[in-house]
Design goal:
mainly beta; 3 domains; 1 helix; Immunoglobulin-like; four-stranded antiparallel sheet; six-stranded mixed sheet; rod-shaped
Length: about 280
């Protein structure tokens, strides 16, 4: 019995020894969902020592796949335990798809029982935009891949669009304006940039109104309609120049056309407008 117990303890000690020196590495790259990851051990030492982990050989490469959320996990030799010292792991993550998938490599000192390497991949370029359209929420600066060329978007505002150029670089230009925006009445309404026209039916006096800046040369028609009572007054936005006095006749509309001037930072009337249509 004593011999058996001693044998069991020796086997257990050997198993523990065999398991030490490895790090459970995890990471997340959301833009690379469904992609792949490969780790290669890099010997940065010139010492004439055969690479070993606790005196034994170890895998110099490991590979895995990312799940639908871009998560991955690898089991790598701890570089603080590996001899010769000073080694690193080059971990390469590749996005899914294409014969030349977008990849990013990070050189990492892997150590400890567990280690998250997500922060090493924050600079990884995201796959290119495949569906064209407007950028509608503030400015954007990113680097990615459009077909086989790199793409850069920078400084887009709410009226900006992304367009692929012949060199594969995404450029910026004003979005084509379309449609009519119907503004809900209030005494201080806010008109929308990004439409060819704004229309509001006033049911009381408008004491002030707001219209954001547009792209250079952007057109805008503003139509103000009286309700069945009529005779309500209307105050134009502060950045509108040449705004007409709207008609007071009940159940009629007054319209005027403007063009945005970047140099004047204002919407300039280019017509006298038509009242009480």
């Amino acid at each position: 019995m004593r011999v058996a117990t001693l044998l069991t303890m020796l086997l257990a000690a050997g198993l523990v020894q065999a398991q030490t020196g490895y790090t459970s590495v995890t990471g997340t790259i959301a833009g690379y969902a469904g992609g792949s990851v490969v780790a290669n051990w890099i010997n940065n030492s010139t010492a004439p020592i055969p690479p070993n982990l606790n005196g034994a050989s170890f895998p110099y490469q490991a590979a895995g796949n990312m799940d639908a959320s871009g998560n991955f996990a690898l089991r790598l030799a701890d570089t603080a335990v590996v001899q010769p010292s000073g080694s690193t792991w080059n971990i390469t993550a590749c996005a899914k798809g294409g014969s030349q998938p977008l990849c990013y490599t990070a050189s990492i000192v892997v150590t400890g029982t567990t280690q998250s390497v997500t922060s090493y991949f924050t600079a990884a370029p995201l796959p290119g935009i495949t569906t064209p359209g407007a950028i509608t929420a503030g400015s954007l600066t990113t680097t990615g891949r459009m077909t086989s060329a790199s793409a850069t978007v920078t400084g887009l505002n709410t009226a900006g669009c992304a367009t692929n150029t012949s060199a594969g670089v995404i450029g910026t230009q004003p979005c084509p304006l379309t449609g009519e925006h119907v503004v809900t009445f209030s005494a201080t309404p806010v008109f929308a940039v990004g439409f060819l026209s704004n229309l509001i039916t006033i049911t009381a006096n408008v004491t002030s109104s707001t219209l954001a800046a547009g792209a250079a040369g952007a057109p805008m028609t503003v139509t103000v309609c009286q309700d069945a009572t009529g005779s309500w007054t209307f105050a134009w936005p502060a950045n509108v120049r040449g705004g007409m006095t709207i008609g007071s006749t009940l159940s009629t509309c007054s319209s005027q056309h403007f063009v945005y001037s970047v140099s004047q930072t204002a919407w300039l009337a280019d017509s006298p407008g038509v009242a009480s249509e």
